[in-house]
Amino acid sequence: MLRKLNTDNLKEIHSKLKLIDKEKLDKLKSEADHARKKYEPLLAEYTDLGKKAAEARKRKDRKSAVMFDLKRNRIKASANAARQEIKVKRDALTAAKKLASAKVKAVKEALVPVQALKKQITAENKKISDYNKNRIASDKRYKSAVKLGDAIMAAAELRQIVGYLGSVQSSQKSIYEWESGIRKTIQAAESKLPR
Predict the structure, then answer these.
(1) What pLDDT, in 10s, does the model give residues 11-51?
(2) Contact 193, 139 (CB under 8 A)
(3) How large a percentage of the chain has pLDDT more than 70?
(4) Closest by alpha carbon to 118, among 179, 42, 193?
(5) What are the phi and psi torsion angles at 100 (to 5°)?
(6) Alpha helices in 149-192, H assignment, sequence order
(7) Which of 123, 179, 173 is nearest to 6 (CA)?
(8) Tens digit of pLDDT for each residue in 86-101?
(9) Which DSSP symbol is given to 187?
(10) 61: left (phi > 0), else alpha (psi -120 to 50), else beta?
(11) Rounded distance, CA 138 to CA 163, Å?
């Protein structure tokens, strides 16, 4: 039951991690995209006029080159302002992403011990499985000894069965302690989630 609770809580934390500052990031991203799309024709025209002026200079057509330069210079201030606005919005988005990433990293770092504990639990579960296989084999030998009337062999096998059951219980106790440790780690990580 504790394992299921821990698993559910971990899933919940991971889903909350994806939502950290999501609205803010989405808003900033849409603003940056909107600014880029809004000024794209102006910037394309500015670039195009520069290329046309350069081509006219290569052809030694001073009149066309001057005309393109004049047109380009008329929109130069607007193009620079547009570039600046796009840069400001992009920088705001980048800063927000870094901040959200730092928040996520803090929570993920708090969850690092969970993986180590899960590996220990998996190893302990393998031990329990081995104990149970040995217990079943001892149980078969015990029943065989009882049928044969061999009290000494039956008592020896019964002692082994009890020993294996004690080992299983000890392993289960360790697993419970590790699951409790996972629960505490998850609670610590939850406390680092932004409200």
Answers:
(1) 999 999 888 888 999 999 999 999 999 999 999 999 999 99
(2) no
(3) 100
(4) 179
(5) -65, -40
(6) 151-192
(7) 179
(8) 999 999 999 999 999 9
(9) H
(10) beta
(11) 11
- Residue 159 structure tokens: 């002692």
15 contact partners, CB below 8 Å, separation of at least 6: none
Which residue's structure tokens are 């909350």?
Answer: 16
**Cβ–Cβ < 8 Å for 132, 161:** no
Q: Length of the chain in residues, anyone?
A: 195
End-to-end CA distance of the chain: 28
Helical H runs in the chain? Answer: 2-19, 22-58, 62-110, 112-148, 151-192
Nearest to 117 by CA among 75, 67, 179, 35: 179
| C-beta of residue 49 within 8 angstroms of C-beta of residue 74 | no
Q: How far apart are CA 102 and CA 125, in angstroms?
A: 36
**Cα–Cα dist 54/51, whole Å:** 5
Judge whether 50 and 75 are in contact, CB under 8 Å.
no
Find where tokens 């606005």 sit: 85
